[in-house]
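Q: Can I see a sequence and its folded structure?
A: Here is a first one.
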Amino acid sequence: MEEHLERAHSAADEDFGWRRPWSGSIAREGVWSNLRGADVLLLRLVPDAEAVGRASEVMALVERHLDRNDPRRVRLAQRIRYIVSGRLTPEDRELLARSLDSAYGNLDAELARVRSLRNMLWTATVLVFIGVAGLALYGSLAPRSLSLCFAPKASAGDPNQMHVVCPSAEYHDLTANTVPSDLARSQDILTVEIAGLLGAALTVIASLRRIRGTSAPYMLPLASAALKIPTGALSAFLGVLLIRGAFVPGLSDLDSRAQVLAWAAVFGAAQHLVTRLVDDRAQMTLSEVGGPPGATAHQGNAAIRQDDGPPGDRPNGQPAAMERSMTGAPDVPDGNADRSSAEETTVT
């Protein structure tokens, strides 16, 4: 126990500096893991009265973090009534310690999965943001190579003239042989990405209604929401580029700069069709951290027969009937049951 506490103290006092966003969470998990390890060892040493007092707490942790078919959970559910009544045996104390250790181990694994998913989401956010920034920089240096300009129609006054629409400017009454890419400006891609950011921001606000609070030490919903912002900018650029390439039928020619920006905002909001899968996965991961057991688990626990100790200590009645059903012994006839059966026959 002293060794566990020393490790927890060392991890809590360690200064990671600039590495804290990555290493600090691991150290925090190390603190709690060592404290839980000391708690398991302490349960083996405390007096019987204190162990009995903690039995219900241990059972609650086991139900939250162990599968309902786990042998330790099943056995502890069978013995819990006998333990809380004060008739604690050395085998029961060992069962409590092992069950608590397994529950703490599963809790540590659940928190590690949350941390891993959070790290992956933040890493993906940074990578997508770097890609979006790289596109904007490349567009400013070579605007003609990724032109987002459209030539929707000829001028109404002169068929030999045309209009050119770009994300950041519109050109009217140009000669018919004008190449739209020659009029691309360095801020075109950045303008489209900003429109996509605005569209993605709306989906972030809309997704807040589905976010639930969590007691987990990691801000997983925030990491999931942050991924939408650069993804919206990227999807806006790709969507306008697809329209520019006549990939979408009927949308090959946008008539005005406002239409270009409007479609960029729409494609920025459309990223939610992909990132919502990430949101669902994040919520599922959070629900696995100490979530209350479902109805199926409750039914399974209700079906577990309670073990009330040695046969000599059990009163006649339901516990004895449970023992007979477990051992396969025949039931003892009951006069009340015979009378109830006779009454049912008469009614029939």
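Q: Show me another, different protein.
A: A second, unrelated one:
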Amino acid sequence: MVTHRRLVASGAAIAALALVAAGCGSGGGDATDATRGGQDAPGGQGTGENGPGTPDASETPAARPIGDGSTADTGPQPGAAEAEPLAPGEEPPQFVVFSWDGAGEDGSGLFARFRELGEEYGADMTFFLSGLYLLPEAERDRYHPPGRSPGASDIGYLNDQHVADTVEQVAAAWREGNEIGTHFNGHFCGPEGVAGWSVDDWRSEIEQAMWMVQNWRTTTGRTDLDPLPFDYADELIGGRAPCLEGQDNLLTAAAEAGFRYDSSGNGLQVWPSRREGLWDVPLQSVPVPGHSFETLSMDYNFMFNQSGAQSGDSSRHAAWGEEMRAGLMEAFDRAYEGNRAPLIIGNHFENWNGGVYMDAVEDVIKDVCPRDGVRCVSFRQLVDWLDAQDPAVLEKLRTLGVGERPAAGWEAFLAG
């Protein structure tokens, strides 16, 4: 998998905040394009329920095919539960969100590894799927990135088999209770990329990301694979921008598209608030053990502070992995014993520095998710819970600083 990285700085408290995406890009064409091969271009209405590639009733007996049959309405997500408000004086749960940028299966087996780990340890996660990872490279000209030629992308395209593997992993992930968000498409960083995009540019990028997921049967020709078991128009409620850039204009376009949250910012371990009507749930500054600075709660940022923008000295790999594990655990402990702010952790399906960051994330999942009072959830589940709370309770929770526990205890603090 080819990735494109960019470093940004954000305040004295954060030494080096690297923004990344382990999978983006996508092909789809503008809404004004003529149809190709008898199928509507992105932004159109699709091919109808009985168009080419629609599965037979016997293939998915409980499903209602959508469009060309790439997706299907199979009813409520298995295991979905209604969020409940806190009772007066009740201590908030400790939410932990494990999220994955790009979320493509590139042959590493990491998608399946963490899906299965989540099932074993009761951790639902968010997989930010890059639309590009469901678009065959031969069809790349369908993607019209803002300000660039058709098919341009700063990340690589998956081969045809890995596109099919990604379809299967995404379907399994959703059935197991995980969320499928978006990491958008071409992963263009900097002022000539997403940082400089207009609201219209983001509208186009969102529409094309959706189209690629909704029309992978058209672009791949793979009618032998089962459809994704969800209506992506309903499933897609949030994302994370490449490089964590361009959030201001993205929020406007995302709100118009019906998103409910965004995780493109960077912040502190405090309770989230709304921007442009969306829950702003950023990556967070977390400790780097043995250092005076903090970095973002993401594998790439730990790597950048240790070995730069690529893997380094193999003799130091184990120590670097332990540094990330310990840093995330320090962040967890100060929330769990403090203000109970949700801990947001970002990752990529990458084996940087010998895969030590993947091992560190696995260790954290195994350690924290079984604990009393801890809920390892997707962003969707988190914002469902936030929406179920009394706004006055959330406002009071936001008065607590990083690691600050109510002086008189939770019962008095949230007495109501």
